[in-house]
Model the fold of this input.
Amino acid sequence: MSSTARTNRILLLVSENGGSTSAQQGNTRRCTDLLSAKKVAYDTVDGADAEQKEVRDRLFGISGVRGNYPQMFVMVEGLMSKIEFLGSWEKIEEMNELNDLPEEVLTKNPELVTLDMVFKECETLE
Done:
């Protein structure tokens, strides 16, 4: 077992009931399928749920993007007080595709961040 603890957690902002197009709903499905396939633990915030409005608005403030779902965030050390925006579906898909680049390309281009690099620090499903 690795000595490095996986303390980050993924937070996914979605819209379960309205507020999103069929394309956004499809992207949300693809995103949750990807997280499940990678066995990454995550929490969701339903942007259409009035009870989660305060958290949704905070996430919109962090991302700078309103009404576009899904949006993926990292809760650093699992804390709601330390949230970083990873991106909307298009960015997540791009980061996932970067996983296929050869290691030497990634080494020569340290600005490239793959989804696996992010998930390496995140909690996993048992």
